[in-house]
């Protein structure tokens, strides 16, 4: 769950001084997709209770995997965009772990495709939260 | 700018009890893309000051249009998903303008492709904010 | 099966007076994808008889689900485009059920992902036919 | 304009006995996108009269090109799918020009990206009509 | 490891006399995706040994199928682009089997979706190698 | 022309001990797209000589930019996949500049969208070649 302080940033849009294309970056995009990943892992564990009457448990699980694959890809994509497009050399100086944190987070997104365990999804969310903290630190 | 109260929702993930696929919905996805749309419209107006030395003003403007086209499409997509997948008949009863608000907002996203005026982008953001209010109302 | 009268429209292209981007709309795009959805549901029911010798029944069914997911998404997409881009306020006045019909049809496309029953696919096709009737009514 | 006889095929869905993925093929998909291509070429020629007040002639033309690029790609895609997935060796025997007709049509779709002349778009539509005739011939 | 001489082909780009878009074609794109297809077929056969501890054999196989579906689509796409965009009538004269070879290869890519047998993937690779030979023959 | 010896690398696939999805990685994918980027920059410089008679110089340049945008995105994508999916901690130990090289290369791909100068495209190709060297070093 995002910390209260994360959402207490009335100036967030005003801070977005970056270049075209969009100039608007927000780790929330990666986080929302990662929340989907974890939610799918949870539902997979309770397939019997979560599936619709119109589908079998096997079908439901197969759909979980297909959809998780896509969501995890979107997590990766949003993180990669942040890493390459938003972060600048001066940020790296202030946050020497920047590269490693992104590497771990995108690898965790890849691992999420191979894991049906919600605690794995939570680890992914924790790594995204680290990135989110660095991101908003650079906005100050 | 999102109202402070919009971000003061520590329980937001806990509220997401919807069906697979993801069960996680958030109007922030549409909003972030719409912020990009408006930022591009602003940069278009100041093309001379915003372009890189390595590109001409004409090139910069052409790129603004191409990228805005995509971002506006993403706004539409995220709104359509919310409308069809998240909202249920009981929400419509409580918010009889639901369909119309979404229709206007997605049409405004389409208009954004044809307008380089940031005030148009602001109208789009205002409509998304209306949707955001309804959305979080239903989560209470 | 589309009614004969649906195809008896020699003037269909001439009627397309809408704005760029394309100015050409046709509910046939949604219908063709929905026919695929129903055909996949039918083949799923006869997996043993439909699968290739080079794949197992389980594999065939898993592929049915993956492909149906995509086709159903395309149905949604084509319907959303019609709803937002083609239909105008004057059409809504003449067809007050417009929003609801699109909402039901796109929701039925979503349900198609969770159902392997061809009668569900038929319901989706019936809803698209309603939209098709309204569409051609507005072209008169 | 599609010939009346083209639309007089009440059995069209019943004929679709092909393999999963979809088993449903229809040259209408390529034709609709090609109609968009031609409509864009026409609007480009009348940019002054077609553009919205909120965009310049240059912007409108740039958008025409971007959108035409995508539509022409979709024409290619739908034709390629028909060629590889629908047509079988026995069809080639009965229609020895099959390969060449598809080659010409997909090349014409590529040329459409480089031409703003609606008569070029019409040539593309004529080639798709040839394919449509062959297609329905094979369905008899 | 690509030998130095591979990077020392000053004529490679110079040979690309085709139209914008890219003017750069290379059958390696199709080949790399086809190698993925075959690798997935091999891993499917050894699912027990290849799966991660965090996933079941059934899950691993389902993911194999989903991913193979996409990779095979990319093979088709790259081959179609080569066929339509790169090859010219004079190439067809010199290589009268051109159309048929591409038809077979793209059909083999389609078959790869329905087969978990690595020897099927090898046949696909062999067909791509034929195309590769023709391609480089035309570059001489 | 790829030499016979290129196809005679029996160890190429065998070297790919990575996880499903594909287990097949090759920096050639990024390189080919980057060659397109540079070729487009070159053609842009000679727009008058490169455009088709059916398009204006302005149209040709606008299309150059749109297509370059996509190709540059593909370069980024292929590089990101290599960085996250292929490279492992032991590779980082042996090549401590790994992260930085990928960061520079993906940033150069982003810069390519804003530059019409072929020497910029060459810098991108040089960075990809560095990555290619590291990649094949790890395969030894």
What does this entry look like structurally?
The structure is a homohexamer of 140-residue chains. The first copy, chain A, has 140 residues and is mainly alpha-helical. The first copy, chain A, is 71% helix and 0% strand. Chain A contains 7 helices and no strands. Chain A has helices at 4-7, 28-45, 47-50, 57-86, 89-94, 98-112, 118-139. The longest helix of chain A has 30 residues, at 57-86. Chain A is elongated and about 55 Å long. The two termini of chain A are 22 Å apart. Mean pLDDT of chain A is 86; it is low at 1-19. Chains in contact: A-B, A-C, A-E, A-F, B-C, B-D, B-F, C-D, C-E, D-E, D-F, E-F. At the E-F interface, helix 1, helix 3, helix 5 and helix 8 of E face helix 1, helix 3, helix 5 and helix 8 of F.
């Amino acid at each position: 769950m995002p910390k209260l302080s994360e959402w207490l940033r009335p100036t967030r849009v005003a801070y977005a001084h970056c270049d075209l294309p969009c100039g608007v970056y927000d780790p929330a995009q990666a986080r929302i997709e990662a929340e989907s990943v974890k939610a799918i892992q949870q539902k997979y564990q309770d397939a019997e209770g979560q599936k619709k009457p119109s589908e079998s448990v096997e079908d439901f699980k197969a759909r979980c995997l297909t959809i998780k694959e896509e969501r995890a890809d979107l997590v990766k994509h949003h993180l990669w965009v942040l890493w390459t497009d938003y972060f600048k050399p001066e940020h790296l100086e202030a946050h020497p772990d920047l590269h490693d944190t992104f590497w771990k987070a995108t690898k965790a997104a890849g691992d999420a495709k191979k894991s049906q365990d919600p605690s794995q999804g939570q680890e992914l969310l924790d790594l995204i939260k680290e990135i989110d903290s660095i991101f908003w630190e650079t906005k100050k």
